[in-house]
Amino acid sequence: MPALSTILNAHPTGHHFLQIPGPSPVPDRILRAMSLPTIDHRGPEFGVLGLKLLKGIQQIFQTKEPVVIYPASGTGAWEAALANVCSPGDHLLMYETGHFAWLWQRLATRLGLKAEIIAKEGTCPQTGLPNSWRNGVQADLIEARLKADTSHSIHAVCVVHNETSTGVTSDIAAVRRAIDAAKHPALLLVDTISGLACADYQHDAWGVDVTVSGSQKGLMLPPGISFNAVSQKALEASKKATLPKAFWAWDEIIEMNKTGYYPYTPNTNLLYGLHEALNMILGKDAKAGLAATFARHQRWAAGVRSAVNAWGLPTQCADAAVYSPVLTGVITPVGVDADAIRKIIYERFDCSLGTGLGKVKGRMFRMGHLGDSNDLTLIAMIAAVEMGLKLSNVKLAGSGVQAAMDYFSA
Ligand SMILES: Cc1ncc(COP(=O)(O)O)c(C=O)c1O
Description:
By secondary structure, this protein is of the alpha/beta class. The protein folds into two domains: about 5-25 and about 285-410, Alpha-Beta Complex (Aspartate Aminotransferase, domain 1), CATH 3.90.1150; about 30-280, 3-Layer(aba) Sandwich (Aspartate Aminotransferase, domain 2), CATH 3.40.640. Helix content is about 40%, strand content about 15%. It has a seven-stranded mixed sheet, with helices on both faces. Strands 1-12 form a two-stranded parallel ribbon. Strands 6-7 form a two-stranded antiparallel sheet. Helix 12 crosses helix 13. Bound molecules: pyridoxal-5'-phosphate. Pyridoxal-5'-phosphate binds near residues 22, 100, 160 and 214.
């Protein structure tokens, strides 16, 4: 391993292709906005900024309910969601779609909650990978489990909207319908850390009680801020919940947010970045801005998938109905180490791809199509992957670069 000073002083020409599924490439507009001088977070300008941000972020979550902004990574917002609505020993039903669903479950257990895992059973015969990590949330399994819980001991259902470890975007409205069909009072908690501002997400219309998200994916910001969007039902639950909460407690923050301020020092320069991101995404007409954002990511994802299909490699997501618009997971042939391919692509072509996490480590890599991207940056990523696959002696059925060029130029 070279010394840190050597690594930090290495300046390859051109710029690095950061094609991991977040942190995503940050637009120059946002970087410039963040470079403005830090202001007094208790002064008059901050209140104006704070109120504007809180209104804008509600539009991103498609909610009229409060959205709490934390100076923390997504993991903090996961903890905040649970700490606010749960009491020690509360029973959670957590659906395992992949590594992040699993990590959230681990966090819940560490908080002293009883986290029951539910997942699609079985193993995919072609790849040997768990079916649950190749598909979305099966709402019927949740419905059946809730119906069996006649004593209503399950306090909350937790699901990941866009599973970043696999590239699957689950149907959250179907989960809501399943809870309603079971006539179960459980809260619905959803992680859309990597889905927000890429894939359609409707906190209010889908009846979500707490939505967890972060800055470093669709919002195109660096890591460091995260969110809880909170329903009235969740606010009520938080009044009775007894897990210890201080920094994460919604009540004080929401109270001070009425005038645009925070009970602690907020992440001022990242908030400048958020201000710029909201301008970029929402524009003058929030509805149109969001629709264009979702369509852009769907198109990028389809272009990238056309390349993967042309190579003849399977995508990690096995169900076309839930392909992620944010990232595409690519399964490598049995015996070919996906991380070795990533290493070649990084060292030879200065392009970072997402590693396989947890149960799919070494079996797949992830191509991000979010953030400050365009058709050509994606074609460059696809070219880097194609060259890396060839250098790794992976037999390809055809040219993914050609397929993507055909798709993007159609
Ligand atoms: C779906 C999902 N949930 C949770 C997290 C954890 O967030 P963080 O790494 O910002 O703490 C991530 C991070 O990539 C994620 O993609």
